[in-house]
Amino acid sequence: MKLAENLRIIDGWSIQEDHFREEHLITNGSNFMTGNGYLGYRGTFAEWRAPQYTGCFVSDTYDKADDTWEELCNAPNGLYGAFSADGQPLAVLNGTAMGYHRSLWYRYGLQSRSITLRTPSKAHVTLTEERFASYASQHLLPARYRIESDRPAGVELTWGIDGEVWDLNGTHLGRHKARSEGENLISVTARTVTSKLTLAVASGLRVTSAETRAETARVGSRLRRSRAAVASADNKCIFGKLKFTVEPERPAVVEQYMAVYSSNDLHDPRAAAISAVSTAQEHGYDRLWREHRRVWDAVWQDCDIEIEGDLKAQALLRFNMYHNIIATPAHTDHLPLGARGLSCQAYQGAAFWDQEIYNLPMYLYTRPQIARNLLVYRHRTLDGAREKARKLGYEGAFYAWVSGRTGEEICPSYFFTDVLTGRRIRNHFNDWQIHISPDIAYTVRRYFEVTGDLEFMLDHGAEILLEVARFLLSRVCYKPRKDRYELIRLLGPDEYHENVDNNFFTALQTQFALQSAAWAVDLLAELAPERQRELTERLGFSTEDYKQCREVAAKLFLQPADSDTGLIEQFDGYFELEDTRPRVLKERLLDPGEYWGWPNGVAVETQVLKQADVLQSIVLHRRCFTGKQMRANYQYYEPRTQHGSSLSPSVHATVAAWIGRHEAAYDYFTRATSIDLLNINKAVSGGTFIGGIHTAACGAAWQIVVHGFLGMQFCDDVLEFCPRPPTWWKRIAFPLTVRGLRLQVRLELDELRRLTVRADPGGVGELTVRCGEQERTVRPGSTAELSARG
Amino acid sequence: MKLAENLRIIDGWSIQEDHFREEHLITNGSNFMTGNGYLGYRGTFAEWRAPQYTGCFVSDTYDKADDTWEELCNAPNGLYGAFSADGQPLAVLNGTAMGYHRSLWYRYGLQSRSITLRTPSKAHVTLTEERFASYASQHLLPARYRIESDRPAGVELTWGIDGEVWDLNGTHLGRHKARSEGENLISVTARTVTSKLTLAVASGLRVTSAETRAETARVGSRLRRSRAAVASADNKCIFGKLKFTVEPERPAVVEQYMAVYSSNDLHDPRAAAISAVSTAQEHGYDRLWREHRRVWDAVWQDCDIEIEGDLKAQALLRFNMYHNIIATPAHTDHLPLGARGLSCQAYQGAAFWDQEIYNLPMYLYTRPQIARNLLVYRHRTLDGAREKARKLGYEGAFYAWVSGRTGEEICPSYFFTDVLTGRRIRNHFNDWQIHISPDIAYTVRRYFEVTGDLEFMLDHGAEILLEVARFLLSRVCYKPRKDRYELIRLLGPDEYHENVDNNFFTALQTQFALQSAAWAVDLLAELAPERQRELTERLGFSTEDYKQCREVAAKLFLQPADSDTGLIEQFDGYFELEDTRPRVLKERLLDPGEYWGWPNGVAVETQVLKQADVLQSIVLHRRCFTGKQMRANYQYYEPRTQHGSSLSPSVHATVAAWIGRHEAAYDYFTRATSIDLLNINKAVSGGTFIGGIHTAACGAAWQIVVHGFLGMQFCDDVLEFCPRPPTWWKRIAFPLTVRGLRLQVRLELDELRRLTVRADPGGVGELTVRCGEQERTVRPGSTAELSARG
After folding, report:
1. Which of B413, B415, B421, B578 to mutate to test the interface with A (most CBs of A within 10 A)?
2. Which residues of A touch B490 (CB under 8 A)?
3. Which end of chain A is more exposed for a tag (fewer CB within 10 A), N or C?
């Protein structure tokens, strides 16, 4: 089925691009990317270079080259390969291609492209390339080219490492050194400007004369000449040439391997890269591919959601889950999950609140070890958060709005430029958007609830909770005449309204975080009193602090729900702002590129929202709201929301599902899961690349289905479902891991609407499953059946 | 002596303009104005009309015609009079004048102009006009014209009421009715748009045939024809004509009277205006002039400062005092003193904090009844202040930033327009500039200290103090982790830095206001316990409130003076802002008309100030600061201050005098007192009139001399002097009224530097006078002599 003019879905596991559109060059470079959480390689073509936004972004390579933006490096491209046949370049951009196809098989993260051209000697030559970022060997990117021709054709391949990369903010790599490391094995090393890292890329061809099969011939069998690679004068690039002939019915196959290491990975990244490529050359593509697939099979076994009856939803869902997965540094507990993953340098490859609230929940219920890793990362970055708090005059841990490797704030104070005046805008993401800290505390508590991982609490979680609480205690104000605590000068998730007071979302999260700190002290006191004493003593968290957590949580002002309507004001005075709609504001723009928010954007003095904080609150604290309140707030805020954030549609989808607005829920689900695929926004604005994968929306896809359509929540030791899926869906099945029990959930949407929850054998403990009024207990090996009717 | 290219001083009581400059049309229309606190009449010429910014602004005539700006009305001009001789207009704007002179004799508020032209028949004709706003009869403006010629000349006068006035924001007058009310007596009445007031103007000529003197002839003696006045079609204007001949050596004299009343003055303003003009016609100009001068003589007797040895300083000082006086509605206790007085509609004819801090102190020490009137006005407007507090979620009295008749906030939320985008700017004068309330409290307390007026405290002052305190208690925040109260989100007098915390000036004033409320409760409890009970009960001001005043005042955070340097930070984080200078910022402007402040002006993120709040604090609370602190803060803030406010130079002059920087003090004195006279700022910006008299600077002139150069302060019942006048001054002499004693202060600046303080007979009580280490007691009729050396 067609997704867009040039995008098709043919199964639930891939997307296909039928013809090339230059205007989608950037967005589809992101959509079709491959990656493995260590690196991300854009879905570009072997012959492309910087102007086509080729890129291989490597985690843990932060550098600041322009005094403002600290971001990840774009590594020299070790998968450069330009083919020509009979002197005719096999390239897509020159407009002579007769056939074209690009696809991403996201089941295994395999990107491929084929192109057919007619050579001057009238041969029809087809080049097919495919590559993947290996999950079995994360520094490695194997690629394979296959060339077919209906007449004998002379093929030339210029291959090597292209070090002329593009950077968003400043040039990060310098002091390049390009080397020939042996036959068909080359390397480029470079140093980052301020962080002084060494980045090493190796590239190698695999050209064996031995291997032949019936239908294809390895290039070696027809090899005519392979010239030694030559480095460019500036040492950024090194290219070799390979010439051979392709005969009809005997496709030629060439393999190329790229490996990347940085000095943050190990002491000698160059040696490691060379070794990785050598090994790959030895093992060959097929073996690497098998090893890689094994990892992906295990991943999907843990988290895949099967939807029967809706191919589009199935494909969109998995596409988004795929991008959430490849953005996640699952292999380590010291790296952030970037807001654009590893698809580009935008958003600095850094963690925002998105990490905990959007990306992590899927892992929490499917691969809890990864959720744990991400939270341990937050624990490792506590010192950065403490430093930020201290600098701003607070105590405890004020987490970075934009958190790189160390947790220090890398969000510049001047994030945007005013397109009308050319002046920089002082955005207050880094100092006023305080909800990041309680958001992390929220997730720590949820993590423990779902996993019961006491060791995590002892080693990491409790410390986060206490330090966040201390920050919040130093941030609140007490209003003596009202005998209540307030939160002043905030920026909520709705970033169009800066400098507001008592933002409902921030207050609710703050209250929960303060309660959670006190809860953690109680928990430790009961289960590990020695550790509790040690921790509170080390942190200087006194009994008085504990009491203040309770007191402030009890007296913190939360905007009340109107007793008649159930409506909740997003912040003090919101209802007094001009009540208008996003489309009206659009007409007020003097320049389409204007920022709508602070300090003087078109939305600031109006009720128009970037995203709806009250709805976001409902999604995170469903228990705290009545159905009436959910309906009232959805009804009020929905038409006033501009969805200027990619985080917004998923929240609407979930709340819409909960209040039974099926159509809206499905529309918002589609919108949330198509943000990148159907991206009609500009990918470059004012000369700045703003493309890349909206990772948070990808993470939210799982949540819309499981939390939203299935109504799943795990609360008070009960796993509850309240299914309201689209009416045409036939079956949904997915695994969950809760409290160490591995469950297979299946909802049959026939007349019986049977919900079964089967626990795999081998776990321990038991779990109560609820659906409506019914409750069942599941134990390892047992199955609970419930009716989801009514 | 020359003050400017076309301005001269010939004595200490007047300014002279030698030739007409069209570019000074607006500013000198203000500088040469006459007025009497009820109305202000711009220093324009009889034949001028709206394009020349003629204007008669009438107090207590608020109207809002454009939905935004509530302002005073410009009355129809009842002193319109256009002369021609032999068909040649006697006018200044046509460029044919041979002689020209304009002067203001500010001793009596007499504006005059003379012009000489050569007629087609070669006669040299001189027209001299003079007028004054009567202080004896405040609705009345008498004018007199004198025409001389060296040959017989036929003169024609078109006189009457010109109702085609200009308005700043919307057209305020409608439903005009022009009437002929008798021989040489006409009227125009009109209604205001939203306030529905009736405004009536009458105008009359005095043309008597009886009066003749040797050297002049009343017009009547040569009267040829006086035509009945004819109203214009739209009823806005009504003009009559008068023709006569002037003979050599026999100047002709015509008198014209204008009277204005509004229905806020009395029931039938038209009848009153007609009656006033009739009476004036009967009494004649000379008698009216005598009666008027008597009032002025009394005024100057109470407040004049004689400076010997510096004609310029003398003239500038009195010029400013004059403008402070005519801006003051001394006749009543229900009207505000406008920030531009009655010189135009700019600043809405309304009171700002300027009234208490800049205009009032001169009265407090010279004509305390007027200071009392202004404070009673604040008491009368308490309900407006209460309503403002309530609307913004506070208790007590939050005084209007821009206070008209009722005390409701008439400061629009959108004060400025961004010249770069054309978008309106949300200025937070009305909601964040809270120091207005403690500023009023400060002045109430100072008023009582200087006057000992217990009755005022019982009837007015205490209520203001308690209500202001209650507002402040509801405004402060308690920070539990720091155990202190803070003031968050402020706009201090330095309006370039909005949204700041713990602005030093605001905090110091707040602390003083809270202390003063508790002090007032104690005072009343001691001196009038019955009234104290009645008041606190009526206001619901509890013992708990009293305790909170003490507690918050004790724990309110004040930026500390650096123990090494004595420097005080203006607000949290000020020292971390970019440290640059005003001239640097000027270069950053994209448009010279840009507002430098909030939200994104060039000064916002820098240390450049509009005015220096710490220096302002020193001026108001001299006792709280050491000499070292004064020096350190002057030295730091002075080069960073742009003086974007007319309030700024006087503060610098005073502090500079106190720390012995004589030259700087004199320079700032000259600057403060020349703001209007040497005004080189634009008087019209973006088509909007922003001219007018900077009344606060006028009020401050007295303070610079008495508080600054003389170092006078009245504290703890001691009248202290610490004289540091300019070295070339020979003598300063002025009256003061303190605690009911009327004092004549005289400082001889010879070698002995004798300071004498003589108390007039007739007062009661005694006073300690201090100068350096010496103390003397003065009693009614006695004189204290002190040495001001060293």
Report:
1. B421
2. none
3. C
